[in-house]
């Protein structure tokens, strides 16, 4: 099986000239010239980025997903490759309904028509990992049933093993390619893909996001029906709306596109800075719009998380950048620990200024947050900044949000929309508001701890006394040992002196 798959990969690589792209890594060019002599008849009319995208599409869904993930690693890929790979879509034919029914019957232990009042045999969506069917629960509730593609685990294991071997061979044959970290990229993809294979994880992500936006006037998230869920099956509320990419249809139903674009920005920054938990796959296929103008989020396989350090870093960077306070941007990287503490602030500041200052020749509405963040990452890499996976996901999502927002409203000023939110968040993190919030968060713990303080103080004092007594005993033992050693040394000295005196008396009478 793997040999056949390997032969297909080699064949597709030669057909689209991927070997030429690898040989371009060789700085000497000798291998490239030799290869050209061997395959002298080949001519390629399309750019290398297009050929790479077409090759990945030919190799199937797992390689398509790999290309999608690579498109987010703009810190590693040249811009032409990253831009082209971002065009990859999961154009995967649905698997037969008989297989879907077999998965469901194997999971529920009974025929599908005994589980659901109605189950639509024709899938409404199909991707590389799963497909979706509409159904009704016994009480008539409309649901969407997501079913893992049969045999996908075996396909993934085989393809990941081949990718890892290819990455290892690439590092061995072309040492220059190591700066692209191919094995680390494959390992990152492996984790990202295996997470998508557990639909219980996706269901938990969906449930968390729904809880975060409970009663929101901006975003709808489907409810999860846990009694019908498992690793291979996820059942959630069926959502009704129009795909966000259908601009004409949205306009026809009376949706305010300008308000919709601003709401998308607010939803993103709310997820990032309020919750530290964000939908990291917000391409148009995963976003619908309800008739009342609210967004509908779908597909929760890829979620990003940020801790307080990450959030503080991002907020300080955004605010400092638009104030042209490049020293503050440099210090934010150092304080977060993402560049070495030994980094010279003035040199780092100058590098950031060189990248960012030309941007301010443009109107603020034309400045891309996502590309700005990317430029900062690329500059920081020169100062030994390690790749932060959570920020790579964030940057990908931010680019998606920007593209979507400006598709809805070309005049969208992202900075004007986001700045009040960022400033409000920063104010809440500092000063008396932060103090009050901290007291509220800690108060329940204090209520449990205060009654125990006398006992804890007594215990601490008793423990301190015990330790002091033990130290005194150890000191006394050490002192006694040293005295014994001193007496022994004195005795040895006297004995040596007596022997020396006897020897002198014998020699000189």
From TrEMBL:
Keywords: ATP-binding, Cell inner membrane, Cell membrane, Kinase, Membrane, Nucleotide-binding, Transferase, Transmembrane, Transmembrane helix, Ubiquinone biosynthesis. One of its GO terms (molecular function) is protein kinase activity. ATP binds at residues 124-132, 146. Its EC number is 2.7.-.-. GO terms for biological process: regulation of ubiquinone biosynthetic process; ubiquinone biosynthetic process. It holds the Pfam family ABC1. GO terms for cellular component: plasma membrane. The keyword Cell inner membrane applies. Pathway: Cofactor biosynthesis; ubiquinone biosynthesis [regulation]. Residues 88-331 form the ABC1 atypical kinase-like domain. Is probably a protein kinase regulator of UbiI activity which is involved in aerobic coenzyme Q (ubiquinone) biosynthesis. This is Probable protein kinase UbiB. It comes from Azoarcus indigens. The gene is ubiB.
């Amino acid at each position: 099986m793997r040999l056949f798959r390997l032969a297909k990969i080699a064949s597709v690589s030669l057909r689209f000239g991927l070997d030429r792209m690898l040989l371009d890594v060789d700085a000497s060019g000798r291998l490239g010239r030799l290869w050209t002599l061997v395959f002298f008849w080949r001519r390629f009319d399309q750019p290398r980025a297009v050929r790479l995208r077409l090759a990945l599409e030919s190799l199937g869904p797992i390689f398509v997903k790999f290309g999608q993930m690579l498109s987010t690693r703009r810190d590693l890929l040249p811009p032409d490759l990253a831009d082209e790979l971002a065009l990859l879509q999961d154009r995967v034919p649905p698997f037969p309904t008989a297989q879907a029914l077999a998965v469901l019957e194997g999971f529920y232990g009974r025929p599908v028509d005994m589980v659901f009042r109605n189950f639509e045999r024709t899938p409404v969506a199909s991707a590389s990992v799963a497909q979706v069917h509409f159904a009704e629960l016994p009480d008539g509730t409309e649901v969407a049933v997501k079913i893992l593609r049969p045999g996908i685990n075996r396909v993934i294991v085989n393809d990941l093993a081949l990718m890892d071997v290819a990455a290892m061979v690439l590092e061995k044959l072309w040492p220059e390619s190591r700066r692209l970290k191919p094995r680390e990229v494959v390992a990152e993809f492996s984790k990202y893909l295996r997470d998508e294979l557990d639909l219980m994880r996706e269901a938990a992500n969906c449930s968390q996001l729904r809880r975060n936006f409970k009663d929101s006037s901006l975003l709808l998230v489907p409810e999860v029906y846990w009694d019908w869920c498992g690793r291979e099956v996820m059942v959630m509320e069926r959502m009704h709306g129009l795909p966000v990419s259908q601009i004409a249809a949205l306009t026809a139903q009376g949706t305010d596109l300008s308000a919709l674009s601003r709401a998308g920005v607010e939803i993103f920054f709310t997820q990032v800075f309020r919750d530290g938990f964000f939908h990291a796959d917000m391409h148009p296929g995963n976003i619908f719009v309800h008739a009342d103008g609210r967004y509908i989020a779908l597909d929760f396989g890829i979620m990003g998380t940020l801790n307080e350090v990450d959030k503080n870093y991002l907020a300080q960077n955004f605010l400092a950048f638009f104030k042209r306070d490049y020293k503050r941007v440099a210090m934010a990287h150092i304080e977060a620990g993402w560049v070495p503490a030994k980094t010279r602030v003035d040199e780092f500041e100058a590098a950031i200024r060189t990248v960012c200052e030309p941007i301010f020749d443009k109107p603020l509405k034309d400045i891309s947050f996502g590309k700005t963040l990317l430029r900062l990452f690329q500059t920081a890499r020169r100062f030994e900044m390690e790749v932060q996976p959570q920020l790579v996901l964030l940057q990908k999502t931010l680019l998606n949000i920007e593209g979507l927002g400006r598709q809805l409203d070309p005049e969208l000023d992202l900075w004007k929309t986001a700045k009040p939110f960022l400033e409000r968040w920063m104010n809440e993190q500092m000063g008396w508001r932060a103090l009050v919030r901290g007291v509220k968060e800690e108060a329940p713990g204090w209520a449990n701890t205060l009654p125990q303080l006398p006992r804890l103080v007594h215990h601490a004092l008793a423990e301190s006394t015990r330790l002091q007594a033990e130290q005194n005993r150890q000191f006394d033992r050490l002192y006694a040992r040293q005295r014994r050693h001193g007496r022994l040394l004195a005795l040895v000295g006297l004995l040596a002196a007596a022997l020396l005196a006897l020897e002198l008396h014998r020699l000189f009478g």
